[in-house]
Amino acid sequence: MIEKVIPQECVDIVERIISEKERFVLLSHKNPDGDALGSSLALLHYLKSRGKDAVVVLPNLFPDFLAWLPGADDVILYEKSPEKANDVIEQADAFFCLDFNAINRIGDVSAVVEKNPAPRILVDHHLFPSDDYIAKISFPEACSTSELVYRLVTALSGEEAVTYEMAQCIYTGMMTDTGAFAYASSRKDIFLIVAALLQTGIDKDLIYRKVFYSSSLTRMRLQGYVMYKKLKVYNKYNAALITLEHDELQRFYAVKGDTEGLVNQPLQIKGIRFSCFLREEHPGKINVSLRSVDDFPCNEVAAEFFNGGGHKNASGGELHCTMEEAVKLFDAALRKYGQQLTML
């Protein structure tokens, strides 16, 4: 039996909104990952199954290895088609906000969303959700927002409402947000949900290959370069750092998703408990990805040093500075948290 974690009052509010409204816009965060896209598309299919007019709007492009997901071709990208995105957002009767805890996480899209007084429903697993929602389905213990979408759909309409297409999207989101169930996935409910998804006929092995075994040659060469040239290990602190500057990304013709998962690689090194990846999106802007194992709180590091946040073992942030300045911040973080990193 899968534990019930969504309060019935939230389910009732969502049911009322779905019953009363016709035009839904589903939103997720900048630089969407497998969980952002998977949860959004799964809920999209559900709303359409109930005869609703629904569309997914994302701030920018998702990784190419997710383009096969059913419904991905119809996603509206704000950075590519702002007028089209603005039009559907202005006409929306209601919003579902997926995989982000505050409206500023959707970047420039937030301005037009905030002008529309339509109700917003949050479905998310990050800490500290804001109060801008008519209903908050917030459960930080969930492995992914996709897990919560499964729980919401089954609470609304039963397990039989989860279609093959929805299951593909939900499984992809759960798999990618747990590193193929290598972390943040020790709760038994996760695997009860996976078992239920398999009942729809999805091929989990094929999904794994589509996501993790579909690299381009340039991506493989970039990853090799990173491991050989750009990985620095701090044995004193059981930590590792990867840096990639803008000109290096250009040299390898990097596209969206080519650096996905790189931050996890150093954690395969014996003794490493904390990994940081600093990627210069363009000169003066550094994207920060943090990963940890055990009880090391990389979300606290993200908040204190990198203008970010997230989960205990998976967090991120953003800096507006040079790479040299970003590395100095990482060094300062190691000094501040060094004792915790060296504790067995």
What would your notes on this structure say?
α5 runs antiparallel to α6 (164-176), α6 runs antiparallel to α7 and α6 (164-176) packs across α8. This protein folds into two domains: 8-211, inorganic pyrophosphatase (n-terminal core) (Alpha-Beta Complex); 219-342, Roll (Diaminopimelate Epimerase, Chain A, domain 1). The mean pLDDT is 95. It is an alpha/beta fold and 344 residues long. Helices cover 41% and strands 18% of the residues. It starts with 7 loop residues before the first helix and ends with a helix. The strands form two sheets. A six-stranded parallel β-sheet has the order 3-2-1-4-5-6, with helices on both faces. Strands 7-8-9-10-12-11 form a six-stranded mixed β-sheet.
What is the element layout, followed by pairings?
Blueprint: H1 8-20, E1 23-27, H2 34-49, E2 53-58, E3 76-77, H3 82-91, E4 94-98, H4 109-115, E5 120-124, E6 135-138, H5 145-157, H6 164-176, H7 188-198, H8 204-212, H9 217-230, E7 231-234, E8 239-244, H10 246-251, E9 274-282, E10 285-292, H11 298-305, E11 309-310, E12 314-319, H12 323-342
Parallel strand pairs: 1-2, 1-4, 2-3, 4-5, 5-6, 8-9
Antiparallel strand pairs: 7-8, 9-10, 10-12, 11-12
Helix pairs in contact: 2-5, 2-6, 3-4, 5-6, 6-7, 6-8
